[in-house]
Amino acid sequence: MKALRRNLTYANVTATLALVFAMSGGALAAKHYLVNSTKQLNPRVIHSLETTDTRIFLKLAKSVPMASAINAESATNASHAETASTASSALALGSVPASGYTRSDCASQTGQVKGFALVPAGPHFPEGFTSVATAYNCSGRVIEARRIEGETGQYEVHFPGNPETVALATAAAGGTFPSPDTVSVKGEGPGDWRVSVYNAQTHTLVDDAFELLVP
């Protein structure tokens, strides 16, 4: 007993008590949590976690159940939503409004029309290329047409920048309906067609208006 008393020092007692508290404290921590609800956290602490270390805040948020949300200004992802009045990202696709999603470009494969032209052909139509007013070209460039010099009922229509090689044509409805005219189309290259207008009653080529469609 005397030997034991001689070995008792302040340092030995302190070290022994620290070891006992550490062991008992570890056992306590293994079974209990000091913080088991976000209600125990001061709002300033939550704000600090959110602004200074989002990773810790996200770990805390995973343990908090959320029954429902009326609305959310933004979300990285969501498994599902029961209802949504309006979502701004649902009103456009590729930054194109839903009302104008038929894209005006020649590369689109959505089945859109790549071009059309109503050519007001006649015996005095210019023999040099002139722009066509009632027309559309997927390339956005002006469509041109000309009457082939010295050739009755023969025209060339050019869609600059249009890559298509297929076109359909019909006689424009004029004073006589149905029109006795038939229209033939021959491709001369991408966006370029030669057109002839033939009257089935007179069996002659005629300078009558026609419509050209590029599907």
Q: How would you describe this protein?
A:
The chain is of the alpha+beta class. It is built from four helices and twelve strands, in the order ααααββββββββββββ. Helix 3 (43-52) crosses helix 4 (54-62). The longest helix has 22 residues, at 10-31. Mean pLDDT is 77; it is low at 26-30.
Brief descriptors of the model:
alpha+beta, 6-stranded antiparallel beta sheet, 4-stranded antiparallel beta sheet, 4 helices, 215 residues
Task: Please tell me how large the radius of gyration is.
Answer: 41 Å
Which overall shape is indicated by the principal axes computed on the Cα atoms? Answer: rod-shaped
Mean pLDDT level: 77
Compute the number of helices: 4
Low-confidence stretches: 26-30
Number of domains: 2
Alpha-beta content class: alpha+beta
Helical residue percent band: 10-25%
Order of helices and strands: HHHHEEEEEEEEEEEE
> Care to count the β-strands?
12
Distance N to C terminus: 109 Å
Q: Please describe the biggest sheet, giving its number of strands, its sense, and whether it closes into a barrel.
A: 6 strands, antiparallel
Strand content: 15-25%
